[in-house]
Amino acid sequence: MTDNVMINYRIEGQFSNIRAHSHQEYEIFLFHKGVCRYLIHNQIYDLQPGDILLMDGLALHKPNVPDGSEYIRSHIHFSPEFIEPLLDSINASSLLHVFRSIHHCLIRPTNEEHSRSIEAQFKSMRAIYVDQQLPPEEKIWEIKTMLSQLLIFMNRLGKVSSQKQVNHKHDKAYHAETIASYIQTYFYKKLTIQKIADELSLSKSYVSHVFKEMTGYTVMEYVMATRLQQVKFLLEVEEDKTLEQVANECGFESVSHFSRFFKSHVGMTARSYRQERLEIYIRSDE
Fold first, then answer.
1. In what residue span(s) does the HTH araC/xylS-type domain sit (predicted)?
2. Portion of the chain with pLDDT greater than 90, in percent
3. pTM for the whole thing?
């Protein structure tokens, strides 16, 4: 239909081994059932059924689902360009403020009727999204209209039910977030678990254990995922920088290690990735 929007409804299955990832699209995530601790950047959300996460997509994020646990969710990915013209036409561009300025937040509806309404909207949008009988243009019109209505409802609900940060976190969540924040700040340096533990006045074993328990992946996996995210950013916005400069600025020990890591995790070379992303920008300007 279009590369600018993707809609999934009630996806089942657990992804405890999924890597931290990021994407260009904004995301509306609806948690239906199961057990999930969601990490976005350096914030941990312990999800409850009915919770909604709004995120700009660019921050590293990852669900942590215990092995064997149920995990049912819906999500909508959309590029801002997909919906902006319609929102501008009704003077409602501020509905994207949560994605642009707050970047991510949790909405926890306290009214069951609101929860049912939100799920019904997701279900209806998915039905339109997969309908093979609708002409493509008509399908896009309908999805844009429904998405704008969903954003209006989210905006109203978010004013009374949103949480950027959850207060009174227990020690494990607090320490895991502190570790993530430290890595996000100093990813470009030579980091070891021992160095992180020393800087945060924690034991090495505790740092390893608590981060794995709370986020679902190891400290060094998160270090490398953070470096990879910054690499992608520099490849796109600093096109004059050599691959060696990008690797050095992002904390890789050598350009060969950087090249191997990038290709194994992205599926293409860094050079090809840069060329592909730049071509997308060129096409969008035409």
1. 177-276
2. 70
3. 0.78
